[in-house]
Design goal:
The chain has about 90 residues and is mostly helical. Helices cover about 55% and strands about 10% of the residues. The chain contains four helices and three strands; from the N terminus they run H-E-H-H-E-E-H. Strand 2 and strand 3 form a beta hairpin.
Length: about 90
Amino acid sequence: MPAEVLTKEDLELFRVQLLQDIKNIVTGVIKPVAEKPEGYKTADVRKMLGCSVNKLVALRISRKLRTKKIGGTIYYNKEDIKKLLEEEY
């Protein structure tokens, strides 16, 4: 099995290429931080409407409340909440 000799120049070239590859991966994966989502979290909506989690699920299913799920957190549309509050009074 023949042995290959590595020089300092080979290692320097590898280092530069590796750093460039890492930079490309990071800039491709990490996106700019998005603005805070427009909407209320579940706990806030429950307090405003005075209802249970099951009622919120029913409102989502009936499409009376639009939602957006970001990173495992459900955000409720502010306009839909406002309409529901106006209907109650």
